[in-house]
Structure formats: C-alpha cells, structure tokens
Amino acid sequence: MSEKSKQHRKLREAQQERQAKKVIKWIIICLFLLAIAVTVYSIIVVG
After folding, report:
1. pTM of the predicted protein model
2. How far apart are CA 1 and CA 14, in angstroms?
3. What pLDDT, on a 0 to 100 scale, did the predictor assign at position 44?
4. C-alpha–C-alpha distance, residues 16 and 13, integer Å
5. How far apart (Å, rounded) are the C-alpha atoms in residues 13 and 45?
6. Which DSSP helix (H) or strand (E) runs through 34?
C-alpha cells in the first residue's frame, strides 16, 4: 500500500471516530430529554 493511501485511511478513521462520538453524544442528549418529557407528562397525568 502506498504511503498516501495509508495516510488517507488514518485520516478517514479519525474522522469516523469523531462522527461516532458526536452521534453517541446526541443519542444521550435525546434520551435525557425524552426522560424529562416522560417525567413531566407523568406528573401532569397523575397530578
């Protein structure tokens, strides 16, 4: 494999890792907001 190809592969792997971390962060944020929404809904319905 040429050096250019190896370098490109390393850059692509680093980019994919950053994107994966972003996706995980947004999934956690969405789950947290959903939990808050369900809690508020439960309080309104029960209360």
Report:
1. 0.74
2. 19
3. 96
4. 5
5. 48
6. helix 3-46
pLDDT at 1 > cutoff 90: no
Distance of alpha carbon 26 from alpha carbon 34, whole angstroms = 12
Spacing of C-alpha 30 from chain mean position: 9
| Residue 1: its H or E element | none
Q: What are all long-range contacts of 30-37, with beta carbons under 8 Å and residues at least 24 apart?
A: none
Half-sphere exposure of 12 (CA within 13 A, CB side): 6
